[in-house]
Amino acid sequence: MISENKLSQQAIDLENEYGAHNYHPLPVVLSKGEGVFVWDVEGKRYYDFLSAYSAVNQGHCHPAIIGALKTQAESLTLTSRAFYSDMLGKYEQFVTNYFGFDKVLPMNTGAEAVETAIKLCRKYAYEKKGIAENEAQIIVCKNNFHGRTTTIISFSNDEVARKNFGPYTSGFLKIDYDNLEALEETIKANKNVAGFLVEPIQGEAGVYVPSEGYLTKAKEICEKHGVLFIADEVQTGVARTGQLLAVNHENVKPDILILGKALSGGVYPVSAVFSSSEIMDVIRPGQHGSTFGGNPLACAVAIAALNVVTDENLAEKAEELGQLFRSEINTRLVEKSKFVSLVRGKGLLNAIVINDDEDSSTAWDICIKLRDNGLLAKPTHGNIIRFAPPLVMTKEQLLECVSIIESTILEFEN
Ligand SMILES: *Cc1c(COP(=O)(O)O)cnc(C)c1O
Question: What positions belong to coiled-coil segments (predicted)?
Answer without folding.
Answer: none
